Amino acid sequence: MNLFKRLVATTSVAALVVVVSAVGLSESSFARGTSSPVTPRTSTNTFSAPVITSTAVTGCAKTNSVAHNPIKTGFPDPKVAQVDRTFTLNTNCGPIVFKAFGKKAPITVIAMTYLAKSGFFDHSLCHRLTTSQIFVLQCGDPTATGSGGPLFSYRDENLPSDDPEDYPAGTIAMANSGKNTNSSQFFIVYKDTYLPPSYTIWGEVTKGLDIVKKVAAAGVVGGSNDGTPKLTIAIDSVTVKSAG
Q: How far, in Å, CA of 238 to CA of 118, rounded?
């Protein structure tokens, strides 16, 4: 069974789309892709590097990471063991550690583990912050535009019930551009948030949520509640280990 779908069109990839009356997350707003578990796509991933301004905050070092075209990767092996894993995002503000739910969201964890070990996330910026109604930091797009990603997508998993605060603080979830369009972009929830139950939950922060809250407290460039974080936070590298 082909779990990873090749993406053949790349005009738009959703990100976290924030609308007061109808809230959603997409890769361009928070999402990306097409429908089944991993399919390839051809892409040039052209982009204009966003203007990133940095705010000096104790505990965050200056970073040389900049928006860049994604490295080319192959496709994850769906036969990889479906086990819980520990991800560490080594950022310029300190490590953010989370448990990845390899048993509840196996396809997602296989894909994200593959991308992490391939160096896909290295030296990438967390490019989007929302600070009203939705409380998340979005990462996983080397282009920092909300439209970048690898050449595949895969299906949704482990969707929550449609309940208030269905995405509690500490949740790690996938961005998408519609049903079954997961790819590389993900978001970290730093304060209890309600969203439509459309975003794969694949992990939970165990250390470093205070770092995300620090980034959120610094606000958004231009003073809005949705956009580039004032405090530049970059993923220098990602390490993945089997949990326990």
A: 10
Q: Which two tokens stand for residue 213?
A: 């809250």
Sequence-distant (≥ 6) Cβ neighbours of residue 184 within 8 angstroms? 32, 70, 112, 115, 120, 121, 140, 141, 148, 149, 150
5: amino acid identity, one letter: K
CA-derived radius of gyration, the chain:
16
Predicted local confidence at residue 51, as pLDDT: 38
The full DSSP string for 184-198 is S-EEEE-S-B---S-
Q: Which residue has the higher pLDDT, 196 or 37?
A: 196
Q: How confident is the model at residue 9 (pLDDT cuts 50, 70, 90)?
A: very low
pLDDT band at 164 (very low <50, low <70, confident <90, very high): confident
* Percent of the residues in the chain that have a pLDDT greater than 70, as a whole number: 78
Residue 44 three-state SS: coil
Both tokens assigned to 36? 């089944």
Q: How confident is the model at residue 6 (pLDDT cuts 50, 70, 90)?
A: confident
The superfamily in CATH containing domain 5-242 is Cyclophilin-like (2.40.100.10)
pLDDT (mean) for 83-111: 97
Residue type, 206: T
pTM: 0.83
All residues at 6 or more sequence positions from 36 whose CB lies less than 8 Å from its CB, including other chains: 2, 3, 5, 154, 155, 180
* Alpha helix stretches (DSSP H) within 98-220: 106-118, 209-218
Q: Which residues contact 70 (CB under 8 A, 6 or more apart)?
A: 45, 120, 142, 143, 148, 149, 150, 184
